Amino acid sequence: MSESKKHNTEEVRLMKGNEAIAHAAIRCGCDGYFGYPITPQSEIMETMMELEPWNTTGMVVLQAESETSSINMVYGAAGCGKKSMTSSSSPGVSLMQEGISYIAAGELPCLIVNVMRGGPGLGTIQPSQADYFQAVKGGGHGDYKLITLAPASVQEMADHTVLAFELAFKYRTPAMILADGIIGQMMEKVVLPPFQPRMTEAEIAEKCPWATLGKPAWRKPNIITTLSLDAHEMEETNIRLQAKYREIENNEVLYEEFLCDDAEYLVIGFGTCARVSQKAVEMCRAEGIKVGLLRPITLFPFPTVAISKHADKVKSMLTVEMSAGQMVEDVRLAVNGRVPVEFYGRMGGVVPSPDEVYEVLKSKLVNK
Amino acid sequence: MKEEIIIAGFGGQGVLSMGKILAYSGLMQGQEVSWMPSYGPEQRGGTANVTVILSDERISSPVLNSYDTAIILNQPSLEKFESQVKPGGTLIFDGNGFHKFPTRKDINVYRIDATEYSYANNTSKTMNMIILGGLLKVRPIVQIVNVLKGLKKSLPDRHHHLLGVNEKALHIGMDLIKKME
Protein backbone atom coordinates (compact mmCIF):
# COMPACT_ATOMS: atom_id res chain seq x y z
CA MET A 1 0.00 0.00 0.00
CA SER A 2 1.39 3.41 -0.93
CA GLU A 3 0.90 4.93 2.49
CA SER A 4 3.68 7.47 2.14
CA LYS A 5 2.12 8.79 -1.06
CA LYS A 6 -1.24 9.27 0.63
CA HIS A 7 0.41 11.08 3.51
CA ASN A 8 1.66 13.79 1.17
CA THR A 9 -1.76 14.88 0.01
CA GLU A 10 -4.09 14.23 2.97
CA GLU A 11 -3.86 15.31 6.58
CA VAL A 12 -1.96 12.88 8.77
CA ARG A 13 -3.61 12.42 12.15
CA LEU A 14 -2.72 10.54 15.28
CA MET A 15 -5.46 8.40 16.78
CA LYS A 16 -6.41 5.05 18.27
CA GLY A 17 -7.48 2.17 16.03
CA ASN A 18 -10.95 2.27 17.57
CA GLU A 19 -11.27 5.97 16.80
CA ALA A 20 -10.12 5.37 13.22
CA ILE A 21 -12.96 2.87 12.71
CA ALA A 22 -15.52 5.42 13.92
CA HIS A 23 -14.19 8.18 11.67
CA ALA A 24 -13.92 5.87 8.66
CA ALA A 25 -17.46 4.54 9.11
CA ILE A 26 -18.94 8.03 9.13
CA ARG A 27 -16.80 9.06 6.15
CA CYS A 28 -17.73 6.06 4.01
CA GLY A 29 -21.44 6.80 4.29
CA CYS A 30 -22.46 4.38 7.02
CA ASP A 31 -26.19 4.73 7.79
CA GLY A 32 -26.34 3.23 11.25
CA TYR A 33 -24.23 2.01 14.15
CA PHE A 34 -25.83 -0.10 16.88
CA GLY A 35 -23.70 -1.30 19.77
CA TYR A 36 -23.19 -1.94 23.43
CA PRO A 37 -20.01 -0.82 25.24
CA ILE A 38 -17.29 -3.29 26.20
CA THR A 39 -13.53 -2.86 26.71
CA PRO A 40 -11.30 -2.72 24.66
CA GLN A 41 -13.47 -1.23 21.90
CA SER A 42 -15.75 1.26 23.66
CA GLU A 43 -14.01 4.20 21.91
CA ILE A 44 -15.74 3.21 18.67
CA MET A 45 -19.17 4.24 19.93
CA GLU A 46 -17.74 6.98 22.15
CA THR A 47 -16.03 8.61 19.16
CA MET A 48 -19.20 8.41 17.09
CA MET A 49 -21.20 9.99 19.91
CA GLU A 50 -18.63 12.79 20.08
CA LEU A 51 -18.66 13.36 16.33
CA GLU A 52 -22.50 13.50 16.29
CA PRO A 53 -22.84 12.34 12.67
CA TRP A 54 -26.65 12.55 12.94
CA ASN A 55 -26.14 16.31 12.59
CA THR A 56 -23.95 16.02 9.49
CA THR A 57 -24.44 12.88 7.40
CA GLY A 58 -27.68 11.81 9.08
CA MET A 59 -26.13 8.58 10.34
CA VAL A 60 -27.86 6.95 13.32
CA VAL A 61 -25.72 6.03 16.34
CA LEU A 62 -27.56 4.08 18.98
CA GLN A 63 -26.61 2.31 22.18
CA ALA A 64 -28.78 -0.77 22.38
CA GLU A 65 -29.67 -2.57 25.59
CA SER A 66 -27.54 -5.60 24.73
CA GLU A 67 -25.40 -7.15 22.00
CA THR A 68 -28.29 -9.44 21.02
CA SER A 69 -30.36 -6.36 20.43
CA SER A 70 -27.68 -4.47 18.49
CA ILE A 71 -27.02 -7.31 16.02
CA ASN A 72 -30.75 -7.62 15.35
CA MET A 73 -30.96 -3.86 14.76
CA VAL A 74 -28.16 -4.32 12.23
CA TYR A 75 -30.14 -7.20 10.68
CA GLY A 76 -33.20 -4.96 10.29
CA ALA A 77 -31.28 -2.00 8.88
CA ALA A 78 -29.31 -4.24 6.48
CA GLY A 79 -32.60 -5.67 5.20
CA CYS A 80 -33.50 -2.16 4.05
CA GLY A 81 -30.22 -1.91 2.12
CA LYS A 82 -28.69 0.43 4.68
CA LYS A 83 -24.96 0.43 5.45
CA SER A 84 -25.13 -0.74 9.03
CA MET A 85 -22.61 -1.94 11.56
CA THR A 86 -21.97 -2.99 15.10
CA SER A 87 -18.85 -3.51 17.18
CA SER A 88 -18.01 -5.40 20.32
CA SER A 89 -15.34 -7.51 21.96
CA SER A 90 -15.18 -11.27 22.37
CA PRO A 91 -17.93 -12.02 24.96
CA GLY A 92 -20.25 -9.55 23.24
CA VAL A 93 -19.59 -11.06 19.83
CA SER A 94 -20.45 -14.50 21.24
CA LEU A 95 -23.87 -13.08 22.12
CA MET A 96 -24.31 -11.95 18.52
CA GLN A 97 -23.70 -15.30 16.85
CA GLU A 98 -27.35 -16.21 16.29
CA GLY A 99 -27.96 -12.87 14.59
CA ILE A 100 -24.84 -13.18 12.46
CA SER A 101 -25.96 -16.60 11.19
CA TYR A 102 -29.36 -15.09 10.29
CA ILE A 103 -27.73 -12.16 8.46
CA ALA A 104 -25.52 -14.56 6.48
CA ALA A 105 -28.53 -16.74 5.66
CA GLY A 106 -30.59 -13.69 4.71
CA GLU A 107 -27.71 -12.67 2.38
CA LEU A 108 -27.47 -9.19 3.82
CA PRO A 109 -24.44 -6.88 3.88
CA CYS A 110 -23.19 -5.46 7.18
CA LEU A 111 -20.02 -4.89 9.19
CA ILE A 112 -19.27 -6.49 12.54
CA VAL A 113 -16.13 -5.37 14.37
CA ASN A 114 -14.60 -7.68 16.98
CA VAL A 115 -11.73 -6.13 18.97
CA MET A 116 -10.74 -9.36 20.67
CA ARG A 117 -9.88 -9.75 24.35
CA GLY A 118 -8.71 -12.73 26.38
CA GLY A 119 -11.16 -15.59 26.89
CA PRO A 120 -12.85 -17.98 27.35
CA GLY A 121 -15.76 -16.74 29.42
CA LEU A 122 -15.71 -13.15 30.55
CA GLY A 123 -11.92 -13.55 30.43
CA THR A 124 -9.71 -10.46 30.59
CA ILE A 125 -9.74 -7.10 28.85
CA GLN A 126 -6.22 -7.57 27.47
CA PRO A 127 -5.53 -8.40 23.78
CA SER A 128 -6.18 -11.83 22.29
CA GLN A 129 -6.72 -13.57 18.94
CA ALA A 130 -8.59 -16.57 20.27
CA ASP A 131 -11.81 -15.79 18.34
CA TYR A 132 -10.20 -16.85 15.04
CA PHE A 133 -12.21 -20.07 14.90
CA GLN A 134 -15.40 -18.24 15.79
CA ALA A 135 -14.84 -15.72 13.01
CA VAL A 136 -13.66 -17.89 10.13
CA LYS A 137 -15.26 -21.26 10.83
CA GLY A 138 -18.75 -19.90 11.50
CA GLY A 139 -19.39 -19.02 15.14
CA GLY A 140 -23.11 -19.41 14.67
CA HIS A 141 -25.02 -22.41 13.35
CA GLY A 142 -25.13 -23.64 9.79
CA ASP A 143 -22.78 -23.56 6.79
CA TYR A 144 -21.92 -19.89 6.44
CA LYS A 145 -18.78 -17.80 6.19
CA LEU A 146 -17.90 -14.24 7.14
CA ILE A 147 -15.51 -12.19 5.06
CA THR A 148 -12.91 -11.62 7.76
CA LEU A 149 -10.35 -8.82 7.65
CA ALA A 150 -7.41 -8.69 10.08
CA PRO A 151 -5.97 -5.16 10.40
CA ALA A 152 -2.44 -4.80 11.78
CA SER A 153 -2.27 -1.00 12.05
CA VAL A 154 -4.43 2.00 12.80
CA GLN A 155 -4.32 2.87 9.09
CA GLU A 156 -5.77 -0.53 8.26
CA MET A 157 -8.51 -0.09 10.89
CA ALA A 158 -9.68 2.87 8.78
CA ASP A 159 -9.03 1.26 5.39
CA HIS A 160 -10.66 -2.04 6.31
CA THR A 161 -13.83 -0.30 7.47
CA VAL A 162 -14.29 1.03 3.94
CA LEU A 163 -13.21 -2.25 2.34
CA ALA A 164 -15.47 -4.39 4.56
CA PHE A 165 -18.56 -2.44 3.50
CA GLU A 166 -17.51 -2.64 -0.18
CA LEU A 167 -17.08 -6.41 -0.01
CA ALA A 168 -20.23 -6.90 2.07
CA PHE A 169 -22.34 -5.11 -0.54
CA LYS A 170 -20.50 -6.70 -3.47
CA TYR A 171 -21.30 -10.21 -2.22
CA ARG A 172 -24.38 -9.49 -0.07
CA THR A 173 -22.78 -11.10 2.94
CA PRO A 174 -21.71 -9.94 6.41
CA ALA A 175 -18.07 -8.88 6.83
CA MET A 176 -16.06 -8.84 10.02
CA ILE A 177 -13.06 -6.81 11.13
CA LEU A 178 -11.15 -9.10 13.49
CA ALA A 179 -8.75 -6.91 15.45
CA ASP A 180 -7.22 -7.31 18.89
CA GLY A 181 -7.01 -5.01 21.90
CA ILE A 182 -3.64 -3.60 20.84
CA ILE A 183 -4.74 -2.53 17.38
CA GLY A 184 -7.83 -0.97 18.95
CA GLN A 185 -6.03 0.85 21.76
CA MET A 186 -2.76 1.99 20.22
CA MET A 187 -2.30 5.34 18.52
CA GLU A 188 -0.52 5.62 15.19
CA LYS A 189 -0.54 7.87 12.19
CA VAL A 190 -3.56 7.58 9.98
CA VAL A 191 -4.89 9.23 6.85
CA LEU A 192 -8.68 8.98 6.90
CA PRO A 193 -10.65 7.97 3.79
CA PRO A 194 -12.38 10.71 1.79
CA PHE A 195 -16.01 11.55 2.56
CA GLN A 196 -18.64 9.82 0.48
CA PRO A 197 -22.32 10.61 0.96
CA ARG A 198 -24.78 8.07 2.32
CA MET A 199 -26.80 6.30 -0.36
CA THR A 200 -30.14 7.92 -1.14
CA GLU A 201 -33.31 5.81 -1.16
CA ALA A 202 -33.23 5.91 -4.98
CA GLU A 203 -29.62 4.69 -5.02
CA ILE A 204 -30.46 1.89 -2.61
CA ALA A 205 -33.41 0.86 -4.78
CA GLU A 206 -31.10 0.72 -7.79
CA LYS A 207 -28.08 -0.96 -6.18
CA CYS A 208 -30.00 -3.25 -3.80
CA PRO A 209 -33.05 -4.52 -5.69
CA TRP A 210 -33.53 -7.09 -2.93
CA ALA A 211 -33.96 -4.45 -0.20
CA THR A 212 -37.28 -4.17 1.63
CA LEU A 213 -37.96 -0.52 0.88
CA GLY A 214 -41.70 -0.82 0.39
CA LYS A 215 -43.32 -2.52 -2.60
CA PRO A 216 -43.98 -0.55 -5.77
CA ALA A 217 -46.94 -1.71 -7.89
CA TRP A 218 -44.69 -3.06 -10.67
CA ARG A 219 -42.85 -5.81 -8.77
CA LYS A 220 -43.41 -8.70 -6.41
CA PRO A 221 -42.75 -8.10 -2.70
CA ASN A 222 -39.14 -8.52 -1.53
CA ILE A 223 -39.07 -11.03 1.28
CA ILE A 224 -36.08 -11.56 3.56
CA THR A 225 -36.44 -14.71 5.58
CA THR A 226 -34.11 -17.44 6.76
CA LEU A 227 -36.79 -20.06 7.40
CA SER A 228 -37.59 -22.67 4.81
CA LEU A 229 -39.85 -25.64 5.55
CA ASP A 230 -38.73 -27.45 2.41
CA ALA A 231 -35.32 -29.14 2.86
CA HIS A 232 -34.61 -29.15 -0.88
CA GLU A 233 -35.33 -25.45 -1.07
CA MET A 234 -32.97 -24.88 1.86
CA GLU A 235 -30.32 -26.96 0.11
CA GLU A 236 -30.64 -24.66 -2.91
CA THR A 237 -30.00 -21.71 -0.59
CA ASN A 238 -26.92 -23.49 0.76
CA ILE A 239 -25.64 -24.27 -2.74
CA ARG A 240 -26.01 -20.60 -3.65
CA LEU A 241 -24.18 -19.52 -0.47
CA GLN A 242 -21.35 -21.98 -1.08
CA ALA A 243 -20.93 -20.79 -4.68
CA LYS A 244 -20.64 -17.24 -3.35
CA TYR A 245 -17.99 -18.29 -0.81
CA ARG A 246 -15.96 -20.01 -3.56
CA GLU A 247 -16.15 -16.80 -5.61
CA ILE A 248 -14.91 -14.82 -2.62
CA GLU A 249 -12.05 -17.31 -2.17
CA ASN A 250 -11.11 -16.89 -5.83
CA ASN A 251 -11.23 -13.09 -5.90
CA GLU A 252 -10.65 -11.45 -2.57
CA VAL A 253 -7.57 -12.96 -0.88
CA LEU A 254 -5.25 -10.33 0.60
CA TYR A 255 -1.92 -10.86 2.31
CA GLU A 256 1.41 -9.09 2.77
CA GLU A 257 4.90 -10.55 2.46
CA PHE A 258 7.99 -9.24 4.22
CA LEU A 259 11.44 -10.48 3.12
CA CYS A 260 9.98 -13.69 1.69
CA ASP A 261 11.84 -13.88 -1.63
CA ASP A 262 14.98 -15.62 -0.38
CA ALA A 263 13.49 -16.97 2.87
CA GLU A 264 14.52 -20.38 4.14
CA TYR A 265 12.09 -20.14 7.04
CA LEU A 266 8.65 -18.54 7.12
CA VAL A 267 6.75 -16.95 9.98
CA ILE A 268 3.00 -16.49 9.66
CA GLY A 269 0.96 -14.19 11.87
CA PHE A 270 -1.93 -11.71 11.63
CA GLY A 271 -2.73 -8.48 13.43
CA THR A 272 -0.49 -7.66 16.39
CA CYS A 273 1.35 -10.99 16.11
CA ALA A 274 2.48 -10.01 12.61
CA ARG A 275 3.93 -6.76 13.95
CA VAL A 276 5.72 -8.51 16.83
CA SER A 277 6.97 -11.25 14.49
CA GLN A 278 8.26 -8.69 12.00
CA LYS A 279 10.59 -7.34 14.66
CA ALA A 280 11.78 -10.90 15.40
CA VAL A 281 12.38 -11.41 11.67
CA GLU A 282 14.46 -8.20 11.58
CA MET A 283 16.53 -9.53 14.53
CA CYS A 284 17.15 -12.82 12.68
CA ARG A 285 18.03 -11.03 9.43
CA ALA A 286 20.60 -8.93 11.33
CA GLU A 287 22.35 -12.25 12.08
CA GLY A 288 22.09 -13.35 8.47
CA ILE A 289 19.32 -15.90 9.10
CA LYS A 290 16.97 -15.91 6.13
CA VAL A 291 13.53 -15.62 7.68
CA GLY A 292 10.47 -14.09 6.00
CA LEU A 293 7.03 -13.10 7.25
CA LEU A 294 3.66 -13.73 5.62
CA ARG A 295 0.79 -11.73 7.09
CA PRO A 296 -2.74 -12.81 6.10
CA ILE A 297 -4.89 -9.67 5.72
CA THR A 298 -8.03 -11.64 4.87
CA LEU A 299 -8.55 -14.61 7.22
CA PHE A 300 -11.54 -15.70 5.19
CA PRO A 301 -10.70 -16.02 2.35
CA PHE A 302 -7.43 -17.47 3.67
CA PRO A 303 -4.20 -17.09 1.63
CA THR A 304 -4.00 -20.87 1.19
CA VAL A 305 -2.41 -20.73 -2.26
CA ALA A 306 0.31 -18.26 -1.23
CA ILE A 307 1.25 -20.35 1.81
CA SER A 308 1.17 -23.53 -0.26
CA LYS A 309 3.67 -22.02 -2.72
CA HIS A 310 6.06 -21.22 0.13
CA ALA A 311 5.86 -24.84 1.30
CA ASP A 312 7.83 -25.77 -1.82
CA LYS A 313 10.60 -23.28 -1.00
CA VAL A 314 11.17 -23.02 2.75
CA LYS A 315 12.56 -25.57 5.23
CA SER A 316 9.93 -24.98 7.92
CA MET A 317 7.29 -22.56 9.13
CA LEU A 318 6.20 -21.01 12.42
CA THR A 319 2.74 -19.64 13.16
CA VAL A 320 2.54 -17.05 15.94
CA GLU A 321 -0.82 -16.30 17.53
CA MET A 322 -2.38 -14.96 20.71
CA SER A 323 -4.32 -18.20 21.13
CA ALA A 324 -3.74 -21.87 21.86
CA GLY A 325 -3.26 -22.47 18.12
CA GLN A 326 -6.14 -21.74 15.75
CA MET A 327 -4.92 -20.25 12.46
CA VAL A 328 -2.09 -22.81 12.54
CA GLU A 329 -4.67 -25.43 11.51
CA ASP A 330 -5.37 -23.55 8.27
CA VAL A 331 -1.64 -23.14 7.67
CA ARG A 332 -1.15 -26.90 8.11
CA LEU A 333 -4.01 -27.62 5.70
CA ALA A 334 -2.34 -25.35 3.13
CA VAL A 335 1.06 -26.96 3.65
CA ASN A 336 -0.41 -30.47 3.69
CA GLY A 337 2.56 -32.09 5.43
CA ARG A 338 5.25 -30.90 3.01
CA VAL A 339 7.26 -29.04 5.66
CA PRO A 340 7.00 -28.89 9.47
CA VAL A 341 4.66 -26.16 10.75
CA GLU A 342 5.52 -25.15 14.31
CA PHE A 343 3.34 -23.06 16.58
CA TYR A 344 3.98 -20.46 19.26
CA GLY A 345 1.18 -18.77 21.16
CA ARG A 346 0.33 -16.86 24.32
CA MET A 347 -3.15 -16.95 25.83
CA GLY A 348 -5.63 -15.16 28.01
CA GLY A 349 -4.51 -11.61 27.16
CA VAL A 350 -0.73 -12.07 27.24
CA VAL A 351 1.09 -10.59 24.24
CA PRO A 352 4.26 -12.32 22.99
CA SER A 353 7.35 -10.09 22.92
CA PRO A 354 9.68 -9.77 19.92
CA ASP A 355 12.47 -11.46 21.94
CA GLU A 356 10.25 -14.44 22.71
CA VAL A 357 9.38 -14.95 19.04
CA TYR A 358 13.05 -14.54 18.09
CA GLU A 359 14.06 -17.25 20.61
CA VAL A 360 11.33 -19.57 19.35
CA LEU A 361 12.35 -18.95 15.74
CA LYS A 362 15.87 -20.01 16.54
CA SER A 363 15.02 -22.99 18.72
CA LYS A 364 12.09 -24.42 16.75
CA LEU A 365 13.16 -23.62 13.18
CA VAL A 366 16.80 -22.69 12.71
CA ASN A 367 18.62 -24.85 15.27
CA LYS A 368 16.33 -27.84 14.94
CA MET B 1 16.85 7.64 14.41
CA LYS B 2 14.74 5.36 16.50
CA GLU B 3 13.86 5.80 20.17
CA GLU B 4 11.95 3.20 22.15
CA ILE B 5 10.55 4.65 25.37
CA ILE B 6 8.57 3.35 28.34
CA ILE B 7 6.87 5.78 30.71
CA ALA B 8 5.50 4.20 33.90
CA GLY B 9 3.96 5.41 37.13
CA PHE B 10 0.71 5.72 39.04
CA GLY B 11 -2.56 6.41 37.25
CA GLY B 12 -3.18 10.15 37.44
CA GLN B 13 0.47 11.24 37.19
CA GLY B 14 0.04 12.12 33.54
CA VAL B 15 1.91 9.09 32.22
CA LEU B 16 -0.37 8.49 29.24
CA SER B 17 -0.65 12.16 28.32
CA MET B 18 3.13 12.64 28.52
CA GLY B 19 3.42 9.79 26.05
CA LYS B 20 0.77 11.37 23.88
CA ILE B 21 2.61 14.69 23.79
CA LEU B 22 5.83 12.88 22.83
CA ALA B 23 4.00 11.02 20.08
CA TYR B 24 2.47 14.24 18.75
CA SER B 25 5.90 15.88 18.83
CA GLY B 26 7.27 13.04 16.70
CA LEU B 27 4.36 13.44 14.31
CA MET B 28 5.15 17.17 14.01
CA GLN B 29 8.70 16.41 12.90
CA GLY B 30 7.52 13.90 10.30
CA GLN B 31 8.46 10.71 12.14
CA GLU B 32 6.68 7.40 12.39
CA VAL B 33 5.16 7.08 15.86
CA SER B 34 3.34 4.52 17.97
CA TRP B 35 1.73 4.98 21.39
CA MET B 36 0.66 1.83 23.16
CA PRO B 37 -0.92 2.22 26.61
CA SER B 38 -1.49 -0.36 29.26
CA TYR B 39 -5.27 -0.03 29.04
CA GLY B 40 -6.11 -2.59 31.69
CA PRO B 41 -7.42 -2.03 35.20
CA GLU B 42 -4.31 0.14 35.71
CA GLN B 43 -6.05 3.23 34.40
CA ARG B 44 -8.54 2.95 37.24
CA GLY B 45 -5.75 3.40 39.82
CA GLY B 46 -2.56 1.46 40.42
CA THR B 47 0.23 1.50 37.88
CA ALA B 48 -0.05 2.79 34.35
CA ASN B 49 2.46 2.65 31.56
CA VAL B 50 2.79 3.57 27.92
CA THR B 51 5.24 2.53 25.23
CA VAL B 52 6.14 5.29 22.78
CA ILE B 53 8.25 4.67 19.68
CA LEU B 54 9.58 7.47 17.48
CA SER B 55 11.32 6.32 14.32
CA ASP B 56 12.42 7.52 10.92
CA GLU B 57 11.32 4.19 9.49
CA ARG B 58 8.16 2.10 9.59
CA ILE B 59 7.62 0.70 13.09
CA SER B 60 7.27 -3.05 13.33
CA SER B 61 6.27 -4.10 16.84
CA PRO B 62 4.40 -1.59 19.01
CA VAL B 63 5.05 -3.96 21.94
CA LEU B 64 8.58 -4.18 23.30
CA ASN B 65 10.50 -5.88 26.05
CA SER B 66 13.56 -3.63 26.10
CA TYR B 67 13.81 0.14 25.88
CA ASP B 68 16.29 2.89 25.02
CA THR B 69 14.77 5.13 27.67
CA ALA B 70 12.63 4.49 30.74
CA ILE B 71 10.83 7.25 32.65
CA ILE B 72 9.91 5.87 36.05
CA LEU B 73 7.52 7.65 38.38
CA ASN B 74 6.89 5.09 41.13
CA GLN B 75 8.60 2.28 43.01
CA PRO B 76 6.71 -0.69 41.46
CA SER B 77 7.57 0.59 37.98
CA LEU B 78 11.26 0.80 38.85
CA GLU B 79 11.20 -2.81 39.97
CA LYS B 80 9.46 -3.84 36.77
CA PHE B 81 11.36 -1.81 34.18
CA GLU B 82 14.93 -1.12 35.43
CA SER B 83 16.08 -4.48 34.09
CA GLN B 84 14.47 -3.79 30.71
CA VAL B 85 16.57 -0.73 29.83
CA LYS B 86 19.06 -1.57 27.08
CA PRO B 87 22.74 -1.43 28.15
CA GLY B 88 23.92 2.12 27.55
CA GLY B 89 20.33 3.34 27.71
CA THR B 90 18.74 5.99 29.90
CA LEU B 91 16.65 5.75 33.07
CA ILE B 92 15.00 8.86 34.48
CA PHE B 93 13.17 8.65 37.80
CA ASP B 94 11.25 10.96 40.08
CA GLY B 95 12.50 10.09 43.54
CA ASN B 96 9.29 10.97 45.39
CA GLY B 97 8.29 8.08 47.68
CA PHE B 98 11.18 5.84 46.61
CA HIS B 99 12.91 3.71 49.23
CA LYS B 100 14.96 1.65 46.77
CA PHE B 101 16.90 3.36 44.03
CA PRO B 102 18.25 2.25 40.63
CA THR B 103 21.32 0.04 40.96
CA ARG B 104 22.45 -0.62 37.39
CA LYS B 105 25.84 0.74 36.41
CA ASP B 106 25.65 0.02 32.67
CA ILE B 107 22.96 2.64 32.00
CA ASN B 108 22.71 6.40 32.44
CA VAL B 109 20.57 7.17 35.47
CA TYR B 110 19.05 10.61 36.05
CA ARG B 111 16.92 11.88 38.90
CA ILE B 112 14.30 14.61 38.54
CA ASP B 113 12.35 15.62 41.64
CA ALA B 114 9.41 17.04 39.75
CA THR B 115 6.77 15.93 42.27
CA GLU B 116 8.57 17.67 45.13
CA TYR B 117 9.06 20.79 43.01
CA SER B 118 5.41 20.78 41.99
CA TYR B 119 4.14 20.52 45.57
CA ALA B 120 6.43 23.37 46.66
CA ASN B 121 5.49 25.61 43.74
CA ASN B 122 1.88 24.60 43.22
CA THR B 123 2.48 23.38 39.65
CA SER B 124 1.21 19.81 40.00
CA LYS B 125 -0.81 20.04 36.77
CA THR B 126 2.33 20.49 34.69
CA MET B 127 4.39 17.90 36.57
CA ASN B 128 4.55 15.60 33.57
CA MET B 129 5.76 18.49 31.39
CA ILE B 130 8.56 19.17 33.88
CA ILE B 131 9.65 15.54 33.50
CA LEU B 132 9.34 15.75 29.73
CA GLY B 133 11.62 18.79 29.85
CA GLY B 134 14.13 16.76 31.84
CA LEU B 135 13.99 13.98 29.27
CA LEU B 136 14.61 16.41 26.40
CA LYS B 137 17.62 17.88 28.20
CA VAL B 138 19.37 14.51 28.37
CA ARG B 139 17.80 12.89 25.27
CA PRO B 140 17.00 15.66 22.77
CA ILE B 141 14.89 13.34 20.60
CA VAL B 142 12.34 16.00 19.69
CA GLN B 143 12.75 19.76 19.39
CA ILE B 144 10.95 22.00 21.89
CA VAL B 145 9.27 23.82 19.00
CA ASN B 146 7.75 20.51 17.87
CA VAL B 147 6.63 19.67 21.40
CA LEU B 148 4.74 22.95 21.51
CA LYS B 149 3.24 22.31 18.07
CA GLY B 150 2.26 18.84 19.22
CA LEU B 151 0.70 20.22 22.40
CA LYS B 152 -1.33 22.69 20.40
CA LYS B 153 -2.54 19.87 18.19
CA SER B 154 -3.44 17.53 21.06
CA LEU B 155 -5.05 20.10 23.39
CA PRO B 156 -8.58 21.35 22.72
CA ASP B 157 -8.78 25.05 21.80
CA ARG B 158 -10.12 26.03 25.21
CA HIS B 159 -6.79 24.98 26.76
CA HIS B 160 -4.52 26.82 24.33
CA HIS B 161 -3.97 29.67 26.80
CA LEU B 162 -2.02 27.13 28.89
CA LEU B 163 0.68 26.61 26.24
CA GLY B 164 2.96 29.20 27.88
CA VAL B 165 2.69 27.52 31.29
CA ASN B 166 3.61 24.21 29.70
CA GLU B 167 6.59 25.69 27.88
CA LYS B 168 7.81 27.14 31.17
CA ALA B 169 7.44 23.69 32.78
CA LEU B 170 9.67 22.15 30.09
CA HIS B 171 12.43 24.63 30.95
CA ILE B 172 12.03 24.04 34.70
CA GLY B 173 12.53 20.33 34.03
CA MET B 174 15.68 21.01 32.04
CA ASP B 175 17.16 22.78 35.05
CA LEU B 176 15.89 20.27 37.59
CA ILE B 177 17.25 17.01 36.14
CA LYS B 178 20.56 15.74 37.47
CA LYS B 179 22.76 12.78 36.71
CA MET B 180 23.24 10.06 39.34
CA GLU B 181 26.75 8.71 39.68
List the defining traits of the structure above:
heterodimer, A: 368 residues, alpha/beta, Rossmann fold, 2 domains, seven-stranded mixed β-sheet, five-stranded mixed β-sheet, 18% strand, disordered N terminus, B: 181 residues, Pyruvate-ferredoxin Oxidoreductase, domain 3, 7 strands
The Cα radius of gyration of chain A reads 21 Å
CATH hierarchy: architecture of chain B: 3-Layer(aba) Sandwich
Which stretches of chain B are poorly predicted, pLDDT < 50 over at least 5 residues? none
Number of distinct beta strands of chain A: 14
Strands of the widest sheet of chain B, in order across it, are 2-3-1-4-5-6-7
Provide the number of structural domains of chain B: 1
User: Oligomer, anyone?
Assistant: heterodimer
CATH topology heading of the largest domain in chain A: Rossmann fold
Shape of chain A: globular
Question: Helix-strand pattern of chain A, N to C?
Answer: HEHEHEHEHHEHEHEHEHHEEHEEHEHEH
CATH class placement of chain B = Alpha Beta
* Fold-level CATH name of chain B: Pyruvate-ferredoxin Oxidoreductase, domain 3
The ordered H/E elements of chain B are EHEEEHEEHHHHE
Count of discrete alpha- or pi-helical segments spanning 4 or more residues of chain A: 15
CATH homologous superfamily caption of chain B: Pyruvate-ferredoxin oxidoreductase, PFOR, domain III
Under CATH at level 1, the class of the largest domain in chain A stands as Alpha Beta
Overview of this structure, please?
The complex is a heterodimer of chains A (368) and B (181). Chain A is of the alpha/beta class and 368 residues long. Chain A has helices at residues 3-9, 17-27, 43-51, 67-79, 90-95, 97-105, 132-136, 154-171, 181-185, 201-207, 231-251, 271-286, 304-311, 327-335, 354-366, and strands at 13-16, 32-35, 60-63, 84-88, 110-116, 147-149, 174-180, 187-190, 255-258, 265-268, 291-296, 298-300, 316-321, 341-345. In chain A, the strands form three sheets. Chain A has a seven-stranded mixed β-sheet, with helices on both faces. The two termini of chain A are 36 Å apart. Chain B has a single domain, classed as Pyruvate-ferredoxin oxidoreductase, PFOR, domain III (Pyruvate-ferredoxin Oxidoreductase, domain 3, 3-Layer(aba) Sandwich). Chain B has six helices and seven strands; from the N terminus they run βαβββαββααααβ. Chain B is globular, with a radius of gyration of 15 Å. Chains A and B meet through helix 9, strand 8, helix 12 and helix 15 of A and helix 1 and strand 2 of B.
